[in-house]
């Protein structure tokens, strides 16, 4: 290991000794928030004719509303683990968050989950209207690929192409969007355990896996490391969904900033509904162990990602 790598490890361990993991998560979230504010301003970029005011306001309402920014955090911290963080990783993380926020805007629509609140404020279709919400989601999705492909994301063109392709696959019909389709279908025909795991791996897990793979790609990691970090992302992606299902069963709307109990009311397929609370808690413990085992080859370099796995499983909002 290089002297520089040892210095990076020392700084990161010192941070965890003096600050909480939640503080680091909040710091990264603020960095992403500030970059998104710059990206979602009224200034025209090359090739654009106009940025309609109401549309940009709807996009900002859906994207600049707080949140843990977990997916960007995982991307940046994975890249940092390979000593390649910085502006390129942050821009890639902001692009990923645009995709995530688009999915939330569309998920909240009356034709989907029909939610009125998101992160403690009115959802985009409530604050504006349904047409504006659809367009805001569409625009955030396409803008994500703009951000990564732009030369301002200072990565080799082949790396940017790889990131774009992987993000398209993670977000599209074989990933998040396909998972949402399976989730809607599951309201009519309740799937078995394997079916639930598949739809959750697509709907929730695909972008979390992408975050970890993208960080490794930006860090110039080899194929084996990219695959290992992807498996780590899949493990904590399932943990994230299980924790979310548990919150829907046990939390109050005030604590999570959105309606709870809606999965059971809508007859949605969840592992929590299938197996119960104690089974979910046992699975969460096992998934954290699996995630930590996947990080063993990286030693102390992976300390922050280990904390992330535990945080995901234990989150209470």
Explain the layout of strands and helices.
Elements: H1 3-18, H2 21-39, H3 53-63, H4 70-81, H5 87-107, E1 117-118, E2 121-122, H6 124-127, H7 130-149, H8 157-171, H9 176-186, H10 193-218, H11 223-250, H12 253-256, H13 262-266, H14 271-275, H15 277-294, H16 303-314
Antiparallel strand pairs: 1-2
Helix pairs in contact: 2-4, 2-5, 3-7, 4-5, 4-10, 5-7, 5-10, 8-10, 9-10, 10-11, 11-15, 11-16, 15-16
Written description of the protein model:
- By secondary structure, the chain is an all-alpha fold.
- The protein has one domain: Farnesyl Diphosphate Synthase.
- It has 16 helices and two strands.
- It has helices spanning 3-18, 21-39, 53-63, 70-81, 87-107, 124-127, 130-149, 157-171, 176-186, 193-218, 223-250, 253-256, 262-266, 271-275, 277-294, 303-314; strands at 117-118, 121-122.
- Strands 1-2 form a two-stranded antiparallel sheet.
- Strand 1 (117-118) and strand 2 form a beta hairpin.
- The longest helix has 28 residues, at 223-250.
- The N and C termini lie far apart (38 Å).
- The mean pLDDT is 91.
- Belongs to the FPP/GGPP synthase family.
- It holds the Pfam family polyprenyl_synt.
- It is an enzyme of class 2 (transferase).
């Amino acid at each position: 290991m290089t002297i520089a790598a040892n210095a990076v490890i020392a700084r990161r361990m010192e941070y965890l000794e003096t600050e909480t993991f939640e503080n680091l998560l909040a710091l990264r979230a603020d960095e992403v928030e500030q970059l998104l504010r710059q990206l979602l301003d009224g200034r025209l970029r090359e090739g654009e004719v106009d940025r309609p005011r109401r549309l940009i306001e709807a996009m900002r309402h859906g994207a600049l509303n707080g949140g843990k920014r977990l997916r960007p955090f995982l991307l940046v911290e994975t890249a940092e683990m390979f000593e390649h963080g910085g502006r390129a990783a942050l821009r890639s993380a902001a692009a990923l968050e645009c995709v995530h926020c688009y999915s939330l805007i569309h998920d909240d629509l009356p034709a989907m989950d029909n939610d009125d609140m998101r992160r403690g404020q009115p959802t985009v279709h409530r604050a504006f209207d349904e047409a504006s919400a659809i367009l805001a989601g569409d625009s955030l999705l396409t803008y994500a690929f703009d951000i990564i492909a732009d030369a301002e994301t200072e990565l080799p063109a082949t790396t940017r192409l790889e990131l774009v392709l992987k993000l398209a696959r993670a977000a599209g019909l074989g990933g998040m969007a396909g998972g949402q389709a399976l989730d809607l279908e599951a309201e009519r025909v309740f799937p078995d355990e394997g079916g639930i795991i598949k739809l959750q791996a697509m709907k929730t897990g695909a972008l979390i896996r992408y975050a970890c793979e993208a960080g490794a790609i930006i860090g110039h990691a080899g194929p084996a490391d990219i695959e290992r970090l992807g498996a780590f992302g899949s493990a904590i992606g399932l943990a994230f969904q299980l924790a979310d299902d548990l919150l829907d069963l046990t939390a109050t709307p005030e604590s999570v900033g959105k309606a709870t109990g809606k999965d059971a009311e809508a007859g949605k397929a969840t592992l929590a509904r299938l197996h119960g609370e104690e089974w979910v808690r046992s699975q969460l413990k096992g998934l954290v162990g699996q995630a930590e085992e996947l990080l063993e080859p990286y030693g102390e370099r992976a300390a922050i990602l280990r904390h992330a796995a535990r945080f995901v499983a234990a989150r209470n909002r």
